């Protein structure tokens, strides 16, 4: 649990026992924050400053250290107000005691402290900075007979190769974590006071159990130090050691830098945390043995799987811990809230190519991983959802190279080659990934859990869980059939005939993927045509899928053979620019290499019915998918009743089509689109709210909307306004293009998700002639 609210530091007298780098830096950080800075004679850090809020003029910091020279140096630097080599000389009136001594010295210090604690303040709080907590808790039990309620064990995750108070750094803890390990009966007021001193030092404060802390630190800190010491020692004892160190590259120096840390301190840590260190060392040795076997056997795929998973692990776990996007971590993008400010007017001309199709990118990774052989993918969408799918397969042991400039190489493991992931598979905001994964994982021999971000956990998953259960799968969901999904492996699946209650390509694809592992035929009947990328790609990988009218089916037990994939540009992404050109007088735009799968061209059909001048040029087939260049020029649009059979063919494109309707002459009516209410947001409501904000007349229905267009051939069709995108990328981009015919600027909040779904949208918008600026938005602004 992380701290979010900073508390004032109201300690009158802080005693630091052990004035080295850690204790000295804490004193320096408190001084820099204004603690006791008004006290006469204080020099150096904090000198001459007024006390900050929460700090009193009578506050002081004193120290105890066996080296009188360190005490003198701390006073000279202005870090402490005084000190002594004996604890009994400085304990008087101490309101907080910080034990910053080596782990193996802790027992003796605590015994001494227990003898003199009655001379400290009545409500004295004790804390420490040791990197092992169970051993220090044992010291407390021995010294005090129990763990005192006002003893709060802690560990700042910060350090340096330098030691001693001379190396004290007031910024050492800024943006670093401090882990507190309170006991069940720890005094909450004492806990809050310890939090306060670390937060004043700029640290992020978290809590965890003592045992968990020691396990985690054994793996993340103690084991790396142990390995660095061992490697440097091994190389230093070889005959050619001088040459080795002379030509060592930067990576070697970076890794082995920690071998320059204090040997005595690390000896103490390894002794104190022996069991957890040995457990982590066992895991490491097992992994190293696997890698050795791969090197000995020349198993390139096994090596690549390990190296590639390791290469991306940092980005992956950073995105999970910080609740940021994969894409931002992969591409070093800035995090935080974004706002679009779009000036009215602009032009739409030129030739552009939008990113690859998300649906096909998803499936290319999934089927490539299950195929036998190596699959080369071009045009892969390096967006949030498809990166989540890619990472999930890495977690299941698949070697994947890239992505790099849209190219991905997948080393397939075959239908039964996936391995159990070490934890839940996190798919971010990717509803497609979660629903398709449910089918694919239902046929595996191992258990898995699928989870996602807060938006995804609100979306219904019963629509795939229920038919999978009919096939024999065992799936647990959260209340209301929502994520996370817990899929129990090792179940014998049987093919079923399933009549889908709603038209959904995700449900159909989920059942077909489960059908790969089922006995007999799996048949799916759809009430209306849906995108057929899964069927086409399965056929491309050599797996027979049959269709008769509204029903498609396959038989389980086959195999997939690797095949190259050239991902067409995403027609959903192209839609924003199709509509932009359709509503802007003088527009003339070509969108290159766009997928025109017959199950995806609802937007083309609808725009043509509205009167758009839209032509398909250079039609061809690439990897089983039809593509074309879309050439669109401005022509006045008219309102229409959208044919119900076109609704499932354009379900993702309606937010942009609503903007086309707002610029048409007459009323556009949509019905049968209740699916829009369970997307990343309730898109019917979100678009209706946005249209109201800019003054577009409309009427909302449970399954659709009527939009009365402005119909002006020149000039604005509505005003400007401020839009809440609800963090839905399609809402944000739709109102961005709406500004082309607005009377005033349109400001759109919460646009960060645009970059995760449509990389490069802003650059393309500016290239064709839109006046769009992005600005960092303050939290809560």
UniProtKB/TrEMBL annotation:
Functional pathway: Metabolic intermediate biosynthesis; chorismate biosynthesis; chorismate from D-erythrose 4-phosphate and phosphoenolpyruvate: step 6/7
Which parts of the sequence bind 3-phosphoshikimate?
Answer: 358-359, 363, 504, 506, 652, 679
UniProt entry keywords in alphabetical sequence? Amino-acid biosynthesis, Aromatic amino acid biosynthesis, Cytoplasm, Oxidoreductase, Transferase
Q: Which reaction does it catalyse?
A: 3-phosphoshikimate + phosphoenolpyruvate = 5-O-(1-carboxyvinyl)-3-phosphoshikimate + phosphate
- Give the top-level enzyme category: transferase
Question: Which SUPFAM superfamilies does the entry link to?
Answer: 6-phosphogluconate dehydrogenase C-terminal domain-like, EPT/RTPC-like, NAD(P)-binding Rossmann-fold domains
UniProt-recorded Gene Ontology molecular function terms: 3-phosphoshikimate 1-carboxyvinyltransferase activity; prephenate dehydrogenase (NAD+) activity
Prephenate/arogenate dehydrogenase domain mapped to chain residues? 12-325
Active site feature:
652
Question: Which residues are involved in binding phosphoenolpyruvate?
Answer: 358, 431, 459, 506, 683, 730
Which residues, by range, are in coiled-coil regions?
Answer: none
Does the keyword Transport feature in the UniProt annotation?
A: no
Q: Which cellular compartments is it found in?
A: Cytoplasm
NCBIfam families under this entry? Answer: aroA, PRK14806.1
What role is this protein assigned?
A: Catalyzes the transfer of the enolpyruvyl moiety of phosphoenolpyruvate (PEP) to the 5-hydroxyl of shikimate-3-phosphate (S3P) to produce enolpyruvyl shikimate-3-phosphate and inorganic phosphate.
Q: Which family does it belong to?
A: Belongs to the EPSP synthase family.
Stated name of the protein:
3-phosphoshikimate 1-carboxyvinyltransferase
Q: Please report the organism this UniProt entry assigns to the protein.
A: Halomonas mongoliensis
Q: What is the lineage of its organism?
A: Bacteria, Pseudomonadati, Pseudomonadota, Gammaproteobacteria, Oceanospirillales
